[in-house]
């Protein structure tokens, strides 16, 4: 088969979210599949850390960049001598119109649940371009059963038209004592800490997390003020509101915002945390939970469909609307026996999610669609 792929999400220096997914899927396909022919389409020259060109892996740079999926890419696909069997998009956006059967990847439809998180331009594209991608798609990839169900219920797609390809995660980077010390010093982490990973935006529920953490600090079982909360992610929509909560509760030294972190810093923060906390009200998958488990750090997670699906019984679940449930979970996770139980369960669960498994699912899908 000859498969085209929109590689732009992977062709970024600072990759987060979909960018990480795209980058690792490309590398896994490159490593595993030497039978199909792949053409990776880009707006700009391929970065040096993308998979190298070889006999069945090719890069094609086309322009103009403006409205690339609406003008440049569709025109190129219509006029090129390369006759693709399918065009696979690592994000929601497929070339439109398209002379080639398309397969978009839908990570979640949170833009319909939390439209205020997006600029007017981004929201317009997410709503309208996703709808168009889905309506013209020969097949659709969803990253979880939850996302598949959302697509069926919201867009009334035929379930047989949607395949689930779970996200993967990398193996943790080796973190020495020296790297740990440098990371903790850089972010002024001086006490045991709870960790949250992800951009500050409404669905992450960080005001709830900080309020629960503030209540936890006042409990005798928290050992006074001997804990910190580290939020690792870009400052986004809610930062001003969150800063006020911190000031009102006098948490200036207890709550730490790292902003953007490197891969090494991310794994060092996972490794040294008391627990990862994901109090989200909406997720399509929840990669940080699996990364944390691979680092042998237990997870406190919101009892929402995607996280329940991905984590099963390997995490401590809380109600993301009831502060008391998180407060109690923070206390419970300090019990060494319980922590060890969760760490073992998490280690077993996290082994299910690798980029190799994700790529194999994709290759199998391409074969079925032949």
Structure overview:
The protein has 370 residues and is α/β, with parallel strands linked by helices. It has helices at residues 18-32, 68-79, 110-113, 120-136, 145-155, 177-186, 206-217, 239-248, 263-272, 287-294, 305-311, 323-332, 336-350, 355-368; strands spanning 2-6, 37-42, 57-61, 86-89, 102-103, 105-106, 140-142, 162-164, 193-197, 228-232, 255-257, 275-278, 299-302, 316-318. It folds into two domains: 2-168 and 354-368, Glycogen Phosphorylase B (Rossmann fold, 3-Layer(aba) Sandwich); 177-350, Glycogen Phosphorylase B (Rossmann fold). A six-stranded parallel β-sheet has the order 11-10-9-12-13-14, with helices on both faces. It has a five-stranded parallel β-sheet with strand order 3-2-1-4-5, with no helix packed on it. The protein has a three-stranded parallel β-sheet with strand order 6-7-8. α5 (145-155) links the parallel β7 and β8. α7 runs parallel beside α8 (239-248). The N and C termini lie close together (7 Å). The model has no long low-confidence stretch (mean pLDDT 93).
